Amino acid sequence: MARVLMKGNEAIAEAAVAAGCRYFFGYPITPQNELPEYLSKRMFEVGGYFVQAESEVSAINMVYGAAGAGGRVMTSSSSPGVSLKQEGMSSIACAEIPAVVVNMMRGGPGLGSIQASQADYFQATRGGGHGDYRTLTYAPASIQEACDLMVRAFDKADEYRALCLILGDGMIGQMMEPVEIKASEVKKFDKSWAARGRGDRKHNSIINTLYITHEELTELNERLQAKYKVMEEKEVLVETYNLDSNPEYVLVAYGTVSRICKNGIAKLKEKGINVGMVRPITVWPFPKQAVLDAAKKASVKAMVTVEMSAGQLVEDVELSVKGVKPVELFSRLGALPPTPDEVADFVLALKGRK
Amino acid sequence: MSQVVFTKTNMLTDAITHYCPGCGHGIVHRLVAESIEELGMNDRAVGISPVGCAVFAYRYFNCDNQVALHGRAPAVATGIKRVSPEAIVFTYQGDGDLASIGNAEVNHAAARGEKFVTILVNNGIYGMTGGQMAPTTLIGQKATTSPQGRSVERAGFPMKVAEMIATHEGVQFCERVAVNNTANILKAKKAIKKAFQNQVDGKGFNFIEVLSTCPTNWGLDAIESMKWVEEKMIPYYPLGVLKDKDQEAK
Looking at the 3D structure of chain A, how many domains does it have? Predict the structure, then answer.
């Protein structure tokens, strides 16, 4: 496919199709509506299926059924809708079946607003629903990256038989950018475990989330935690920026905010202040080592977390930095992105204070 | 020479069920299992186990199975049927599961005309959680959350699920049956088998409500429970076909 100008939600939808996704179950909510709208036509062109469910709860349980039957399946929603999906997401994690969920975050809590936000960070990185589980969570900073991560998310979901999240702030869904959706061969995975009718199999396949004895439940949880440990070792994705400039400060930001930070860093450079950045691409597993390595640099006076939430990302930064350097927080509340000048001014104020 | 007069259906496993003496689940399991086997669909069958007393149905039905969250079985079945249209899919749900928390899922599956079978086992109470009031609990019936008996003032009226389901155009076949005596069990078998035959033939949503017993939570013995179905439940929940598109076409 040639490089074309596409809206984020539609580009992500097309990337899902390119990744071999053939089943979509969803429910309307702003700011992600273009994604199901696009797939309501596109899925039928490629021999797949689109179902508009009666609720987010129903949609995620359709995803559970389709994933359990061996389909490459996804749903998408935005913050209040993703809260509703949590019961099914916990089940998908527990049943160890592969699925992808897109959350185009909007402002909260409650109905909040329809503008971009990052306030679902805790929900996305701490499991989200009940029980001990995690989701492999990608936070794209551009539409091209969102498309590339979409393909990766489906493969990783199948590889680990796990739930993968694409965590976009609403801007990723709503803005238009040039994008190239690369057609590559869809990887094949063994799905002999799927429950879709026994056929020639000797045994019955059971997709289950009930482990009634404590021995069984302990064994399940140990298996899940072992899987998450492997993810923490192997699946971290991170971008480091301007770290070889002997930075005085290192920003930590993800998604669209990280792009605003890059412009802030350019403005600070004009004033003769070197600032670097660590951008988590996976927010879970979190790039702890990259953040710690940056903090340990002799030139670095402090780490600065920039987030469109009230101090969520900063907890992971503090856990990673382990007190090696001070951790400052520039928090923007209420679903309005900061400007590059505001980021630069925050750093200037820090410098002036010291 | 000995003569075989009865064999258990291969669609049930040899597992010993956890159901209480006098509970109707064992009968309904067998009727569902026999129907699938008689249609030669064992290898294509996918059951959806509910939350409730039948949560272990996946241990008893000898076929592929997915265990659904409370009330979500019709959504799970929808997902399976999209990926695997050739599968013979059935949800097996109680009245707390289907009529209360899963009311949206079952009604929308019916409205969409999803091509699977839903079995509702209605015993008018939450069995697994210990006898709480269900949407189907009768007026005056005692439950742990209606200790003086269900009152209209406090809890409204019992829900007639089969009648509600039958209002949807997407429904191919909807019948209410009971398993309280031999004659009714035979009728129930016929209805359940027809529902599965319809699915094999690719015909719309098929819904069977089965009036059943809960001796443990009703505080009755097995025989009294069967009588209670006859005397209390059937008058409020009349048996019979509520929708059959085959008949409408004639």
Answer: 2
